[in-house]
Write a structure and sequence with these properties.
Elements (H helix, E strand, L loop, with lengths): L2 H17 L13 E2 L9 E3 L1 H9 L3 H12 L5 E7 L3 E6 L1 H14 L13 E4 L3 H12 L3 E4 L10 H7 L1 H9 L18 H22 L10 H4 L2 H22 L3 H21 L12 H24 L8
Parallel strand pairs: 5-6
Antiparallel strand pairs: 1-2, 2-4, 3-4
Helix pairs in contact: 1-3, 2-3, 4-10, 4-12, 5-10, 6-7, 8-11, 8-12, 10-11, 10-12, 11-12
Length: 319
């Protein structure tokens, strides 16, 4: 379950409470779902009860308890707890964590796209930053209108000649990623652009090598426990958070948020890869765990490639 899916689930609970007459308040257009703040619990939290308390003329914790009773029965939610002045904290079921891999593998590069900005008109100029904002806004359902103001229409030729197009674009989208743009020429994992693209290439290599060994991942092989342990859990959370990052990057016209998240995904993938072998050693036959790990790796590669595409940067399968 992604934050967007959980947000829709929360809104359905609010709508049900209003329809049944146990809560008198307008149903909000969206419910913000995010990671719990310090002191919070579970996987996600929302402050929707605090937002509804005023219109409902009831204490926030009372509103939260009403919603909790409606949310606790969902199969993808193992626990709902009311904390603080009225926050709802969610602990997801193991299958809910596993479902994100199935969702990514099914939706491909469209994973994380949605209608958060449907009805909005986003005006952008020209240049790589404007192009990235336009792609992000369009992926969230906005209407994009080009203007002749803003950045120049192309990358500085000297920068492209020195760095290459992809590195030049990255340096403009996330200028603080390295101490100097020339650091993007270094082909090792201290270079965030190389780290992201190498992680993608490694996931593709794992899929190819698994095919040579005669096995593949796939939706039916994904196990929740594989992502609830150590680095697998960390990587699963990064994939779950991806749609929310896309929405925030589009809403705030900030492609660097996506670049930072892709870097985080690459780092989480390498940690997972180092502690959870995806391919079986020697003549050992692939187990269910290997198939599950392969599915997670393939989903990670899909997210990395989709994110790079939105930024206007290529995702080669070989590095």
């Amino acid at each position: 379950m992604t934050p967007a899916e959980l947000s829709r689930t929360v809104l359905r609970a609010v709508r049900r409470a209003v329809d049944e007459g146990v809560l008198r308040a307008p149903v909000p257009e969206r419910a913000v779902v995010e990671r719990p703040r310090p002191g919070g619990r579970g996987d996600y939290a929302t402050n929707v009860a605090l937002k509804l308390a005023g219109p409902a003329d009831r204490p926030a914790r009372e509103v939260a308890e009403i919603l909790r009773a409606l949310l606790i029965g969902y199969e993808t939610i193992s626990d709902v707890e009311v904390t603080g002045p009225g926050f709802l904290n969610f602990t997801l079921a193991q299958d809910a964590h596993a479902s994100v891999v199935r969702t990514v593998l099914t939706q491909g590069h469209a994973y994380g796209h949605g209608g958060a900005l449907a009805g909005d008109v986003v005006r952008v100029g020209r240049g790589p930053l404007a192009d990235a904002v336009a792609r992000l806004a369009h992926a969230q359902g906005a209407t994009v209108v080009r203007t002749e103001t803003g950045e120049p229409g192309s990358l500085p030729s000297a920068l492209v000649a020195r760095l290459g197009r992809d590195a030049a674009v990255w340096s403009l989208l996330w200028p603080t990623a390295t101490a100097s743009p020339d650091d993007l020429l270094v082909q090792r994992e201290t270079n965030p652009l190389f780290r992201v693209r190498y992680a993608h290439a490694r996931t593709r290599a794992l899929v190819r090598n698994a095919g040579t060994l005669g096995f593949e991942g796939g939706e039916g092989e994904v196990r929740g426990e594989e992502k609830r342990e150590g680095e697998g859990d960390r990587l699963g959370r990064v994939l779950v958070d991806y749609p929310g990052v896309l929405e925030a990057a589009a809403r705030h016209r900030a492609p660097d948020r996506l670049a930072r998240h892709l870097d985080m995904a690459a780092e989480a993938f390498f940690r997972f890869h180092d502690t959870h072998p995806v391919l079986p050693p020697g003549d050992e036959k692939p187990s269910v765990a290997h198939r599950s790990r392969l599915a997670l790796a393939e989903a990670t590669g899909t997210v990395l490639a989709g994110g790079l595409s939105l930024l206007g940067i290529s995702a080669p399968e070989h590095l």
